[in-house]
Amino acid sequence: MRNWKRGKTKLEDRFIGFNEKRMHIFSELVRRYWNGSLNYISDLDDLAAEIKEKYGYGEHEIPFIKDHIRLAMGLDPNGKELFEEELQMLRRNRGVHKPLISRLEGPCAHCGDKKCRCDTTGKYESPLYHKEPEEERDECIECGFCAADCDFGAIAEKIEFLPMVELLKERKSPIFAVVAPAITGQFGENVTMGKLRTAFQKMGFDDMIEVALFADILTIKEAFEFNRLVKKEEDFFLTSCCCPVWFNLIKRNYPDIYEHLSPSVSPMIASGRILKRLYPDAKIVFFAPCTAKKAEALEEGLKGAVDFVINFRELKEIFHALDINLEDLPPNDKDLASLGGRVYARTGGVSFSVKMVVNRLDPTRLIKLKSKKVDGVKECRELLETLRSQGKDRANFIEGMACKGGCVGGPRTNIDTAKATELVNEFGEDSLILTPLDNLNAVKILKQFNILSVADITKNEELEHVLSRE
């Protein structure tokens, strides 16, 4: 929170730095639930008592601690002093539901700001909280920055790992770990993607798949859409790939610009839909750099494509709780995606990839793809206001990402944005596949839809339905 250090007292010490305390709570839950030592309400009570003692909380703050335990279990907070049916609810649930973010009573009283400002709506009290009026929640673009910025534990999100533990142990159906391109380097420079794949398989996943593979497919689709829609100098095209915050910002605040937006789903949703077509009983778990992807997975019209979303910070705690030493694992390497698909992780990556394909498809095209890419919610708004007031921009392919630096700068990442960008670029350049058009893995998937030529990618009704928001 902004200026939270102002006027700090000893009373505040137990709230400051709560994001780390929250991860400790989660880690303990993972360790105990995975090992079968969370069976009774008394086991949850014991954990709450340990947290209280460790961080110096008072008896009156027990409901606050228990609400964070509930959120870490993927459950709604209720402010109650006693646990009741939380373990039964956890075992029954095979997913989470909205609201994903809640505001808890107590710590706000000790915050120097007194109120937290939502930068995306410009209002006080973020409308994403389930206690806010419905009409205000509709303005929320579900970025999740409010939870990431609050270091007092007053605003927190649900964690989706515990509801999927039994699925990993039962292995009754295929379970795929689908990872965002920004995951490169997030767990140490010596932890390769091959080692991450081994770690996921050790946990019970059937395989780890780069979402960049599906970014390659969407890149080809968007290149054909660009060629179809941008025929004159004044035409422009907005990509909807990757960032759900960018999409929500346009849809909810700029309906006049919305018609220029690509109808395609994000690579995350595309991965879930395609994998479930190939493996009808599969469960899809997406690993993301942000909270926004959790909200996207539960959006009406998209719900069901992805079953769970875990962020990188949570995944780091999971590896720690399960005693998985990533650097010591043997790598299981696969080259699934192109350079173009892998650099989706950073600002300008989508533009770079689509431009490569557009130029390959039609090298003599008179109207070249001229991209404009921005990052940051404020910068996205400014660009959209420019498009609204001027009717057009000198660029004809517009890309926006809510996080500075792109997905590598997400609020739930583990490393510095500049370093993450460098590692993503290196990983992309290491690919044996230069462009999405050269990706034989993508070609094999398209053949499952009876698409034998990439030129037919926008003509196949089944694939169009899979890749479209409409």
Give the helix proportion (percent range).
Answer: 40-55%
The structure class reads alpha/beta
Strand order within the widest sheet? 4-3-6-7
Number of helices: 20
Order of helices and strands: HHHHEHHEHEHEHEHHHEHEHHHEHEHHH
User: Radius of gyration from the CA trace?
Assistant: 22 Å
Strand count, sense and barrel status of the largest sheet are: 4 strands, parallel
Task: Tell me the strand percentage band.
Answer: 5-15%
Terminal residue distance: 38 Å
Shape category: globular
Number of strands: 9
Low-confidence stretches: 1-9, 124-136
Characterize the quaternary organization of these chains: single chain
Task: Write up this protein.
With 470 residues, this protein is α/β, with parallel strands linked by helices. Helices cover 42% and strands 8% of the residues. The protein has 20 helices and 9 strands. The strands form 3 sheets. A 4-stranded parallel β-sheet has the order 4-3-6-7, sandwiched between helices. A 3-stranded parallel β-sheet has the order 5-9-8, sandwiched between helices. A two-stranded antiparallel ribbon has the order 1-2. Helix 8 (193-203) links the parallel strand 3 (175-179) and strand 4 (207-210). The longest helix has 18 residues, at 212-229. It is globular, with a radius of gyration of 22 Å.
